[in-house]
Design goal:
The protein is α+β, with helices and mostly antiparallel strands and 169 residues long. It contains two helices and eleven strands. The chain has one domain. The strands form two sheets. It has a nine-stranded mixed β-sheet with strand order 3-2-1-6-5-4-7-8-9, sandwiched between helices. The longest helix has 22 residues. Helix 1 packs across helix 2. 20% of the residues lie in helices and 48% in strands. It is globular, with a radius of gyration of 17 Å.
Length: 169
């Protein structure tokens, strides 16, 4: 099976997000379901653009397979929650597409945090040393430039994706 393709057995894709320390599933009828965690095996990691108010916005997607279902967890490109998840997954050198994982968000002091487990073991970040944020001044206004940090995160995500793709070959 090629990375990103779904098995013949896959019945449906369920889109999820994380908000206020919970896994959120927005139902087609307008309702909302909340879950403590999402678990399964990591099937894919991708970066895709979505359109909001006429503008293209990048989002990360973590596809997590559980039996015949794929849970597609979407997080904004600059999400600290995604950074925590991917840095934790990268720390597991033995992670494959068959490794059971659990992503469990929680809220602390008004911020969403996340704990990641692989085979029942809590994962720590692969590194705590992220590239620094820079300040740039444009037309007299100061902005935070996170390009170097986000390129680092993209590289970490690519390594994890390659690791799980290697297990599928």
């Amino acid at each position: 099976m090629a990375l990103g393709q779904l098995d013949q057995d896959t019945k449906r894709r369920i889109y999820l997000s994380i908000s206020h320390g919970k896994v959120v599933h927005y139902l087609q009828n307008g309702g909302v379901e909340y879950f403590k965690n999402v678990e399964g095996t990591l099937a894919d990691i991708s970066l895709k653009e979505r359109t909001f108010n006429g503008q293209k916005v990048p989002f990360w997607y973590l596809d997590i397979k559980d039996g015949a279902e794929i849970y597609s967890l979407s997080l904004p490109f600059i999400s600290g929650t995604f950074k925590s998840i991917i840095l934790a997954l990268a720390s597991d050198e033995s992670l494959t597409a068959e490794t059971p994982i659990v992503i469990e968000p929680y809220e602390k002091n008004g911020y969403t945090k996340v704990v990641v487990y692989a085979e029942g073991v809590k994962l720590d970040w692969v590194t705590k040393e992220l590239p620094p944020l820079k300040e740039v001044v444009v037309a007299g206004k100061t902005y935070t430039d996170d390009e170097e940090r986000m390129n680092f995160i993209k590289g970490v995500a690519r390594k994890v994706k390659d690791r799980i793709a290697g297990a599928k070959r």
